[in-house]
Amino acid sequence: MPLRRYAHLTLWALGLLTALAVFFVAQLRFNYNFNDFYPAGDPDLDYYEQYADRFGNDNDYVLLGLEAPAGQTVFEPDFLVRLDSLTRFLAGRPHVLRVSSPTNAVNPVVEGPGVFNLPYLHPREPARRALDSALIYRTPGLVGNLISRDARAATILFQTSPNLSKPPGDSLLAALRRELGRQGFGESEYHLAGKQVAQSVFVDRLQGELVLFMSLSVLLVTGLLWLTFRTWWGVVLPLVVVLGAILWGLAVMSAFGVSIDLMTALLPVMLFVVGMSDTIHLITRYITELGYGAEKKTALLVAMRESAFGSGLSALTTSIGFFSLMTSSIRPIYNFGLFTGIAVLLTFVLSFTLLPAMLALLKKPQLRVPREQGHSWDGVLGRLFRQVLARRHWVVGISAVVLVLSVASASTIRINSALLDDLSKNDPVKLDFRFFEEQFAGVRPFELALQPGPGRTVFDLEVLRETEQIENYLQKSYGLNFVASPVTIIKSVRKALNGGLVEEYRLPADEAELARLLRKVKLFRQKPEFRALALPDASQGRLTGRMADVGSVRIHGLNTGLHQFLRTAIDPTVLRTRLTGSANLIDKNNENLSRDMITGMTLDIVMVTIIVLALFRSLRMTVVVLIPNLVPILIVAGVMGLAGVSMKVSTSIIFTIAFGIAVDDTIHFMSKLKLVLGKEDNLFRAVRKTYLMAGKAVVVTSLILVGGFSTLLFSSFDGTFYVGFLIGLTLLFGVVAELTLLPILILWLYKHEPKAIIKEVVVP
């Protein structure tokens, strides 16, 4: 079949597939559900979902903190009136189920058959200010929860609909901000925190940053392609191929019913950078053949034949790097690895169908005349090759020293994360969350399920006393700043039956008194805050609270102490407990992080080793491929340890991705060396010629990769910043290892058997 006809048929078929891809991409939607980051398939997740069905989610709330004007306290009449207006405003908003505020907090008093709810604060009665403030400071659970200890700030907590999605959540927050402005609160005088706030900010920023990253990547790659090829088609054709691959990859994701989330949103940027490798290797080889005087058709066929093996193998190893992320129990990471890996393979398909078809339809390019003076690629690479071999002992020695230091530094890396770890310490959102930790109970939720022993209820006196012991431990030793449980209900009822006196807020002394209290509990069961602490039949209960976000390392130690206390101090025949909640599930992610990372990295290395062994059937070749690519990984791990970068969900994906990408250049180099040795008997000359032939493509692709990942440095998220920085650093060290260690290893391991490189290859 004539080449041009084949090209037309190829473009026609690919055009139909692209039209189908556009149809699927048009149906893609963003998924804003943070709950997807819980460990999928974990028994604790199943338990929490059942627990949430009974008592509600522990993170469906928003905290609004309000600072009093300078020199005033929250008990000033004007401030209280505005606070009360905001409370009433929120109570009337859609998707708001309950509002807790200093101005609607009440002190219940039982008189006769009814309950009288006496407010603690009287905003419109200034004369009662002194008495109100005194009562509040004497009442447990108000100071540090609704009013700061220094009385300079107050907080409103409003419960939202379960798993409120982003659009209505954004509308609620926007309405609240407008009302805050109307009430005269400046942006510096109020603070917002909660899952809904973080969800809104994270997604909005991510969408904006992706546009920025793609724009910077396109500009950077366009510039590098122009500097490399100095032709319009050398810029446009790779861009068309890679953008087509991104479109296909997103279409596959849509066809499987997967939405764009916080991880898969990185797919376009990641693929745009990674997908350039195959096109650059193919175009570089095509231009080289044209430079040797070959006809266009011959040059294209030779370029495809000689590049297909290395590009196919590198696409396979890169995709394996992404596929290995499927070992993660976190669904967004799993999907990111799966669909980015598929998209990498699709890029290879387009590189060897769409790109050759477009080259075939273009006229034979007019090659640029080399400069008579100045530095050429061959001149620079030739001098570098000579210097590397002349100082090979220094290269190996320095590499060994750096490697030992890196391993020592890498051993100091800790797995540690906090709820807002991806935000910089001076980020406004993080500062708002910190405000609630410094002034109030904190933002990290705590949940402990309470299961009474057989034949008991959560309101049995022994069960209540055991629960109170747990509360005391959590407040004194664990760091809980606010706590509520069935004990809260009984103490509140006792206080209400005794005229609302603060000193009566305690458990009953005996069974007879408890029986009298339980007859009145039904008066309080309809209160939402009490209904969420015990089931109607009292068969199960909930101990809930809030604390500062102290990080996963500190929490692990606290949980160890808590479990020890529960085993030794609590009678399991009276009360059994189970730690649960959204924060606990995030902690489980961190516990699994090390395992998932090691599993993924091991799988990546093993699969690459198997592929190399299957194709080259040589342990020596395996060593040649692995060493130059494992060394940069270990060095970057050392950089992480030296810089104090913790291992967390966002940074755990770095090593598997970087290894899968970095090994590409080695495979391209070895596949070209095999072809050269078919015509060249001398190993030294063959390695040098391969170094000159492959060196340009290796350097250019590495620059594009490093530059592309460097665009992530502009992210406001620390996790994304470190992904860009550390992967870019790995690839930078990788190209250095490629140009230094690789030729030294080949010449050392094959110095007596140069033709073994050919014999050890199974020609595809």
List descriptors.
single chain, 764 residues, alpha+beta, Multidrug efflux transporter AcrB transmembrane fold, 26 helices, 62% helix
Task: Give the N-to-C terminal Cα separation.
Answer: 23 Å
Mean pLDDT: 84
Instruction: Tell me the helix content.
Output: 55-70%
Strand order in the sheet with the most strands: 2-5-1-6
Structural class: alpha+beta
Total beta strand runs: 10
Report what the structure shows.
With 764 residues, this protein is an alpha+beta fold. The chain has 3 domains: 3-34 and 200-358 and 382-411 and 587-759, Multidrug efflux transporter AcrB transmembrane fold; 36-199, no CATH class; 428-586, no CATH class. Helix content is 62%, strand content 8%. The protein is built from 26 helices and 10 strands. The chain has a 4-stranded antiparallel β-sheet with strand order 2-5-1-6, with helices on both faces. Helix 1 (3-25) packs across helix 12 (354-361) and helix 21 packs parallel to helix 23. It is elongated and about 105 Å long.
Helix-strand layout with pairing:
Layout: H1 3-25, H2 43-55, E1 61-67, H3 77-91, E2 96-100, E3 106-111, E4 114-119, H4 129-138, E5 153-160, H5 166-182, E6 190-193, H6 195-229, H7 232-255, H8 267-274, H9 276-291, H10 296-323, H11 331-351, H12 354-361, H13 377-390, H14 392-410, H15 428-439, E7 444-452, H16 461-478, E8 480-484, H17 486-497, H18 511-521, H19 528-531, E9 541-547, H20 552-569, E10 575-580, H21 582-616, H22 619-643, H23 654-677, H24 683-710, H25 718-749, H26 756-759
Antiparallel strand pairs: 1-5, 1-6, 2-5, 3-4, 7-9, 7-10, 8-9
Helix pairs in contact: 1-7, 1-12, 5-6, 6-7, 6-8, 6-24, 7-8, 7-9, 7-11, 8-11, 8-24, 9-10, 9-24, 10-11, 10-21, 10-23, 13-24, 13-25, 14-22, 16-20, 17-18, 21-22, 21-23, 22-23, 22-25, 23-24, 23-25, 24-25
